[in-house]
Amino acid sequence: MPEAMVPDWYIKDPEVAPPGTPSYLCANCRHIDFIALFRQEESDVMPKARDYIMLGQLQAILGNAEECGFCRFVLRLVGSDGAGGLATEEERVTARREKLISLLEESFYLCPIRFKTTFNNPALYICSAQEVAEATAAAGQTGQATMKRPRNTMAFRPLHVSAPNLGRPLREPATMDFEWVRERMALCDERDYGKLDFRHRVPVRAIDVEDMCIVDLEDGARYVTLSYVWGEVQQPKLTRATEFQLRRPGGMWVILESVPLTIRDAITLTRKIGERLLWVDALCIIQDDPVDLKRSMGQMGNIYRHSILTICACAGEDAAYGLPGVRPGTRNTQQLGSVVGKLALGNILPASEATEASKWSTRGWTMQEKVLSQRKLQITDHCAMWWCWHTITSEDENCRHSGWQPGTDHRGMHFFRDEHELVVSKILGRNSNMDTYAFMISDYTNRNLTDQADAANAFLGIFDQLDGTFRGEFIAGLPDTEIAASLLWVPIGPHRRRCIRDPETSHVRPLFPSWSWLGWIGQVAYPWLIERSLPMSESGSPLMWRNQVENFDEEDAWFTGNDYRLDGGVDPNAVERQRGLPPRWRLDP
C-alpha cells in the first residue's frame, strides 16, 4: 500500500509484548493505534465500507481472546449486547453463550471515526458486517450525517479515575454511587452560588426524611422533588383524615410498608445524599381537598422549578418498581473493563437511551417536571444520569465540568427531543417564544395521559413559565397574543377528539375546542415554522383573517393577527379602545 494511503491509526512496526502479559495484543490488534483513534477530530461523514477496521470472524476473535486484551474485550462486548435487562447472572451467562454461538461465523469491524457529539466524547464502536452494510447503504453516495449510527451498546471509551469526558470505573456497579451524587450536588452548588432560587412563595408540604413526617416548608428551604409514574398501584395518600397522623414525628413509619417502592427508595436516596426534605405529590397534596388540589395543581411548575434536585424514576412501569441501585442488588449494571496495550477500555452504559425509552418519558405529567427542574437525577435500570445547567453526565463518566472555575456561566438548557423533522427549526439560535412553544407542544402531545381531563392541568406549569414571554394569556392552550400563528398546528399521524363521559348521563362530550391542539389526542407540529428565514412573529404568520362587516373595501377586509380590530373597524375610536381591550393588552399608537 502506498505510504499516502496508510491510515493514521495504522502502526507499521508495533511493539510486541510477551504473551501472557496484560499488554499483549494479537497480530491483528497490535497494528491498531487506539490512542490516535480516540484523539482524532469528530466527523459527521460516514466512512466507506473499505475504511472499517477488520477484526475478523467471531470464532477467530474467540480463539485469540485468551491472550489478546482487545479480542477479549470485543468478545465480552458482543456477548453482553442485549443481556443487561435479564434478572439473574445465570440468565445473563446463558444469553451470552447462546448469542456468541449464533454469531461465530459473523465478521466484526471497528468503526474508524469518532461521531460528532454534544460534549466531544471520545467513543468508538464495534460493528457487525451486517451493520456496516446497513450503515453505508443508509449513507448512500453522499456520506452525509443522516447515516445509521452504530448502537450505543457496542460503544466503548478509555477508562480513567478522574480525566474529564473519559469513562469512570464504578466502585460497585450493582449499587448507586451516592458519593458521586453528593459530589455533583456540591459542585453545582458551588457554580450556582447566588443563582438558584428556592423561594416557592406558596404553601408547600414535604416529607422530613429524618423525622419521617409531613412538615410545612419554609420559603427558601432546600427540598428534593420526585418525578415518577403512578400507574395503577394502590398507595396511601395524604387526606384530611390522615394528615394529623402523618404530621406527627415518626408518623410515616406507620404506613411505610404500604408506600410504593419508588417513593420509599426516594426517601432513602434523599437521606443518603445529605438532604432532608422530599416533596412527593401523593403525600404532600391533600388528595380529597378540592381547594388544596387546585392550588397545588396551579403551582406544580413552581414546586419543581424551585427544588434543589428532581429525582426522575426512569425505570419500570409504575410506582411499585423502585429506584434501581438505591437498595443493594436492585440493578444489573454490567460495566466491562479490559486492559488493551497502554489503555484501560470500558463500555458505555445506555443512560440517555434508557431514559428516552422509559415509561416516564411517555407520560404527559412528567414533561413539565422534566422541563422546569433546575437539576435532575435520572435513574434507569443501568445507572444514574445527572443533568444540570452546566452539564449532562452519568455514573460511568468523569464529569465534564469538574475543572470549571466557580462562576462559569450556564451553557443553556436543552429541553426537547428532535426525532421528527417537523419539530426542528431551521433557524436554531434565533428562536422566538413561538419556536419554544412549538417545541414543547410537539413533545407534550406525543405523550400519554391516563385521565384526559388532565390535559391542560399537566401543562399548567409550562403555561405559567411561557406567560411572560407572550405577554398575554392562553385560550384553550393557545397564546392569545399569537392566536393566528398558534392556530396553524397540524396533526402528525392519527388523531381522535379528547372527550369525557358524563358519569350521570353517560353522554360523551369534548373537553376542549376542536380548533385547539388540546381538543385532540395525538401529536401535533407547526411545520410552517420550519420553512422560514426569520424568527417567528404574528406578522409573519401565513394565516389571514377576513373582516365580515359589510361595506368594507376588499383591500381592508383582509388582515393578519398583527392587527387588532374592535367592532370590525380598522381605526377604533377612543371609547372602543378603553372598553374593548382584554386585561394586560395595550393598543400601540
Structure, explained:
- It contains 19 helices and 26 strands.
- By secondary structure, the protein is of the alpha+beta class.
- It has 4 domains: 3-158, no CATH class; 178-333 and 348-403, no CATH class; 421-540, no CATH class; 545-580, no CATH class.
- The strands form 8 sheets. An 8-stranded mixed beta sheet has the order 8-7-10-9-11-14-15-16, with helices on both faces. Strands 2-3-5-6-13-12 form a 6-stranded antiparallel beta sheet.
Short summary of the structure?
With 589 residues, the chain is of the alpha+beta class. The chain folds into four domains: 3-158, no CATH class; 178-333 and 348-403, no CATH class; 421-540, no CATH class; 545-580, no CATH class. Helix content is 27%, strand content 14%.
Secondary structure blueprint with pairings:
Layout: H1 34-39, E1 42-43, E2 53-57, H2 58-64, H3 69-80, H4 89-102, E3 107-110, E4 114-115, E5 124-128, H5 129-139, E6 155-158, H6 178-191, E7 205-208, E8 213-216, E9 224-227, H7 243-247, H8 251-255, H9 261-272, E10 277-279, H10 281-284, H11 290-298, H12 300-305, E11 309-313, E12 337-340, E13 343-347, H13 351-356, H14 365-372, E14 376-379, E15 384-387, E16 392-394, H15 433-444, H16 460-470, E17 474-475, E18 478-479, H17 483-486, E19 490-491, E20 496-497, E21 499-501, E22 508-510, E23 520-521, E24 524-525, E25 545-546, H18 554-557, E26 558-559, H19 574-580
Parallel strand pairs: 1-4, 9-10, 9-11, 11-14
Antiparallel strand pairs: 2-3, 3-5, 5-6, 6-13, 7-8, 7-10, 12-13, 14-15, 15-16, 17-18, 19-24, 20-23, 21-22, 25-26
Helix pairs in contact: 2-3, 3-4
